[in-house]
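The record is given unchanged here:
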Amino acid sequence: MRMFRIRKNDMVKVISGNNKGKTGRVLVVYPKRERVIVEGINFIKRHTRPSQNNPQGGIVEKEAPIHVSNVQLLHNNKPTKVGYKDLKDGKKVRYSKETGEVIDTN
């Protein structure tokens, strides 16, 4: 399992597949499956039976996971490659390889 360069709440652009060119916010990251769910992208339809939670049942549309290699981080509304570097205080941060700017300080 490798280190992910995409995190929850990042803005990403889909770079391949049926939704190529669309952008959205990352809702969920699945590191073991190497997939992410992006808001408003890759909708699938699921047929559900009536239950206590959903007494009507029927067809439900929801976002499906996309492989992490098919999305690219947006920094300042531009797709960017992401690297990691250590700061002087010992923190490891993500940075944009194009501009050299630190993306976050978590």
